[in-house]
Amino acid sequence: MALDFVQERHQAHAYLDRLPPEQLSAVRGLLETMLDPLSRAIANAPIEDEKIGAEEERAVAGAREWLKRNKPIPHEEVLAEFGLTLDDFERMGRTPLPPEDNGAAQ
Cβ contacts of residue 32 below 8 Å, gap of 6+? Predict the structure, then answer.
């Protein structure tokens, strides 16, 4: 017979209380990852193994050269040009976009 929710929680706390500090730290990190959807998505994302093409290499090299002669532009300034703040940007990242309207009548 499965333990009920209260018993499950009590048992989990009992296990945590018995862990040495270094293992407790590891479990805390695991729990944080399990509870944070972004961390979980990053942890489960496939490893980037696509080769970088010549065009991308040139773009990166161009950006590095530009930075040698110019001051970087803070993200906040770029957002401000669009009338946005960092809070707006972060909120947009958490809010799904509505489905695209392809103009077809329904």
Answer: 39
> Residue 101 — pLDDT band, cuts 50, 70, 90?
low
Instruction: Specify if 8 maps to a domain.
Output: no
Structure tokens at 53: 């093409």
**Count of domains in the chain?**
1
Give the residue numbers spanning the domain of 36.
Answer: 16-44
Q: What is residue 30's predicted lDDT score, i.e. its pLDDT?
A: 84
DSSP 22: H
Within a domain: 38: yes
Q: CA-CA-CA-CA torsion for 54, 60, 66, 67, nearest 10 degrees?
A: -160
Q: Cα(95)–Cα(28) distance, rounded to whole angstroms? A: 28
pLDDT tens, position by position, 63-93: 999 999 999 999 999 999 999 999 988 888 8
